[in-house]
Amino acid sequence: MDYNNIDTIIKGFDKVLKLESVGAPTPIPTPLIYVGVPKRQGLSPTKIASRIISRKNEAGIPVGVLPSGNVNPEEIMWRIAVEEIIKALQEDSVITVSIPPGLTLTASGTSPAGPVTVFGTTITFGSGYATIQ
Amino acid sequence: MSLRNDKKDIFTTIGAYTSLGNEPDLPDLGDTYSSLNENTEPFHFLVETIKSLVGEEGLKLLIGELFTNLLDEIQPQLKQGLVNQLIDFNEGDVIPDCFKNIGGGINIPIQDIDVFSKLKTDPNSDIGGLLYGEGVDDFDSKAYEAIVADGTDVVYGEIIMRYDSITDSLNFRSKSDTISIGDWFTDFISGATIIKKDELISRIFNSIFGVITSKQNKSLEKIYEEKILDKKIEKIIGESFENEINNENLLLNENELISLYDEAKDLKNGKIRYNLGCDCIFEEIQPEETKEIINEILTSVSPNNVGNIMENVVLNKTTGDSELISENKSTIVDSFFQKTIRILKHELIKSITLSPQILTLISISKTIKNDCTYETINKDDLIKENRVFIKCITRSASNEINRFVFNVAIMFLTRLVRPVVSKIIKEKINQYIRILKSLVSI
C-alpha cells in the first residue's frame, strides 16, 4: 500500500467505515412468505406516526399536548410526514421482481401423438411487478 | 376536492419546493479541518482524522505512540531506503583505491557535512548531551572523537576517519580493501545508528523551545542560514511527490526570508513565539530540565504516559495572561500537539537527509562516481544539488511515518466501528426474528 497516496489512504478508511460486509440479510423461507404475507394488515400511517410519537420520550422530548392544551404541531407534522412517505411508497414506488432461471416446472401441452406433460426447469430470467399495501 | 383546495395545494407545493431549494448555509468543514484545503500530502489529513475520531486525547496518544514506538518500527525501512538511494550502477565494482584503507582516503571539509554545527560541540557538555543523545556511540560522536584526537584514526563500523585540523576536514577510508561498493554501503548502513530516540526528542524540543540553538552561541547569521535550510526541507516535505522538485520550488520569497530572520532572532534570544490560539509564548526551558523530561519520556513504556508528559510540558511552559491561557487551554494544547507532530516528521527527515553521517555517505558516493575527485558544495546549493536524493528519501520516510499514523488511526476507527457493527448485527437478527414472527403468528 502506498501511504503517500491520499487516494489509497481514503480507500483504506472507506473499507473500514463502509461496513460493506456487515449485516447481509438472511433469506426468508419462501413458503413462509407465501403463507404469511397475505395475512398481514398492510401499512398504516396512523399506526406508524403514533408509534414514533410514543417513542419521543426516548429522545428526551415530552409527548402529548402543549402546556396550553393545544395539540403539539410537531406531532401533527410527524403524522403528515409519515402519511406522505407511505402514500409515496404505495402510489409511486415501482417494485420489479427478478426471477432467476432454474425454477422447476410442470407443463402440459399437445403433440401429434396427443396431450403431453413436460417436467423441467426454466432457462431464462423472468420478471414481475409488485405493489406495496 | 374543491377548487379552493386544489389552488391551496399549488401554493403549498411551491412553498415546499422553495424551502427545499434554499439550503441553509452550513458551517464549512474547511474551517475545522484545514487538511481539506491542502494538497495531496496525506500526513496532515491522517492527523486530523485521528483528531476527529478522538479529539485532543487522540493527538496526545498519537504523540505518545510516535515518541515510544515510531523509531523502532521504521528504522529498518529507513535504512533500506538509504541503501537503495546510495547504491548505483557501480555497486558490483570493488571500492576505488582512493577509498581503500591502503589508499589516501576521501577528504571532506567539516563545513560540508556539519551544516547544523554539531560536530564541534562536546557530547559530554550539557548541550552536547542533548545534541548527541546518550547510549551507544554513533557516527557523530565518533566524528567528534576524531576531531579531538586530531590526526589519529578513529573507527566506526566499516569506516576509518581521521581529522586534519589544518584543513578542518575529515578523511574517510574503508576498513576493507576488497569489498564492493554496494556491499560497503549496505554493511555500513545496516550497522549504523540512523537516529537515537533521545536525540530526536531533543531536536523536537529545540525546534519548539530553542533549548539547544540559543545556548550554542551561534551567530544570528548562522541560525538564519540553518532556518533557510529547514524551510527548504519543509518545502520538499510539503511538495506532492508526483510533482518534480525543481529549483524554482526551492526559492524563498522576500516575506519568507523576513519571517525566517525574525524567527532566527527569537531563537537566538531563546524565545519562540507561536500562534497557539492566544497571544502566548513558551517560557525558556533549560537543558537540564529538558534532559529530565526526555529521561521521563524514555523510561515510560506507555504511550499514554508520554502524552501526559507532553501535555504537562505545554501547560507549564506557556506564559502570558493566565486568564487567557486558562480559557484557551484546550486550543493551546491542541496547537502544541499538532505542531509537535509536524516537527517530529520534519526532524526525522532532516536526520536522514542532512545529518553529518548522511551527508558524508552522499559525499563518498558522489566522489567514488566522480573518479575520486571530491567537489565541495556551496551551502546555498546543498539542497538543490541533493534534491533527488532528499526527495526520494523523504518519500520513503513519509511512507513509513504515514503508515504508522494510518495504523494508529485504524486502531481508533476500529474502536469506533466495533460497537456499530455489533449494533447492526443485532439489528439484523432482530429484524429477521420479527419478520418470521409476523409471518407465522397471524
Key words describing this protein structure:
heterodimer, A: 133 residues, alpha+beta, two-stranded antiparallel ribbon, two-stranded antiparallel sheet, 4 strands, 20% strand, flat, B: 442 residues, mainly alpha, four-stranded antiparallel beta sheet, 63% helix, 5% strand, elongated
List the helices and strands and how they pair.
The complex is a heterodimer of chains A (133) and B (442).
Chain A: H1 6-17, H2 30-36, H3 45-54, H4 73-92, E1 95-99, E2 104-111, E3 114-121, E4 126-130
Antiparallel strand pairs in A: 1-4, 2-3
Helix pairs in contact in A: 3-4
Chain B: H1 3-21, H2 29-32, H3 43-54, H4 56-86, E1 106-109, H5 110-113, H6 126-132, H7 139-148, E2 153-156, E3 159-164, E4 169-174, H8 181-191, H9 197-209, H10 220-238, H11 247-250, H12 254-268, E5 281-282, H13 287-299, H14 303-317, E6 318-319, H15 322-327, H16 329-351, H17 356-369, H18 382-385, H19 387-440
Helix pairs in contact in B: 3-4, 3-19, 4-8, 4-14, 4-16, 4-19, 6-13, 9-13, 9-16, 10-12, 14-16
Descriptive report:
Chain A is of the alpha+beta class and 133 residues long. Chain A has 4 helices and 4 strands; from the N terminus they run H-H-H-H-E-E-E-E. Chain A is flat and about 85 Å long. Chain A starts with 5 loop residues before the first helix and ends with a strand. In chain A, 5% of the residues are buried. Chain B is mainly alpha-helical and 442 residues long. Chain B contains 19 helices and 6 strands. Chain B has helices at residues 3-21, 29-32, 43-54, 56-86, 110-113, 126-132, 139-148, 181-191, 197-209, 220-238, 247-250, 254-268, 287-299, 303-317, 322-327, 329-351, 356-369, 382-385, 387-440; strands at residues 106-109, 153-156, 159-164, 169-174, 281-282, 318-319. In chain B, strands 1-4-3-2 form a 4-stranded antiparallel beta sheet. A two-stranded antiparallel sheet of chain B has the order 5-6. In chain B, helix 6 packs parallel to helix 13 (287-299). The radius of gyration of chain B is 28 Å and the shape is elongated. The chains are: A alpha+beta (133), B mainly alpha (442). The A-B interface holds A 1-6, 9, 12-13, 16-17, 19, 22-23, 25-26, 28, 32-33, 35-37, 39-40 and B 40-42, 45-46, 49, 241, 395, 398-400, 402-403, 406, 409-410, 413-414, 417, 420-421, 424-425, 427-428, 431-432, 435-436, 438-440, 442.
